[in-house]
Design brief:
Layout: H1 15-26, E1 29-33, E2 38-41, E3 65-68, H2 73-81, E4 88-93, E5 97-103, E6 109-115
Parallel strand pairs: 3-6
Antiparallel strand pairs: 1-2, 4-5, 5-6
């Protein structure tokens, strides 16, 4: 048996609007919409990962999901341009990650992170 993918499902009153939010912030493609669910995809080389945790690190609440990026400044600028602000950070953590938290339009807490070079 092989796991083919792990997909987080975020609750949304308007799945299309929430999909558009993530597509704009992270250059994702909206591959399919069915009204009650929207499917987004990133680059094919991205890998699936599942984590379990009791908190988000540095005493922060546990986010619903983490989105790893190679350039933290771009989604941060896009978030601010949308009129929203990070709810935590941006900060460089002692374990070698630069990150910020955002609340998406549905209130989900999202960790956006990049690894720092050491």
């Amino acid at each position: 048996m092989s796991v083919l993918r792990i997909v987080p499902n975020l609750p949304a009153r308007d799945p299309s609007a929430l999909a558009a939010f993530y597509a704009t912030l992270f250059d994702l493609e909206i591959e399919h919409q069915m009204g009650w669910i929207s499917f987004l995809a990133g680059p094919s080389q991205a890998r699936a990962q599942l984590q379990t945790a009791s908190e988000g690190g540095a005493g922060t609440p546990l986010p619903a999901l983490t989105i790893s990026v190679d350039d933290l400044d771009t989604p941060l600028a896009r978030l601010r341009a949308s009129g929203a602000a990070p709810v935590y950070g941006p900060v460089t953590e002692p374990w070698g990650v630069r990150r910020f938290y955002l609340r998406d339009p549905e209130g989900n807490l999202v960790n956006v992170a990049t690894h720092t070079s050491e």
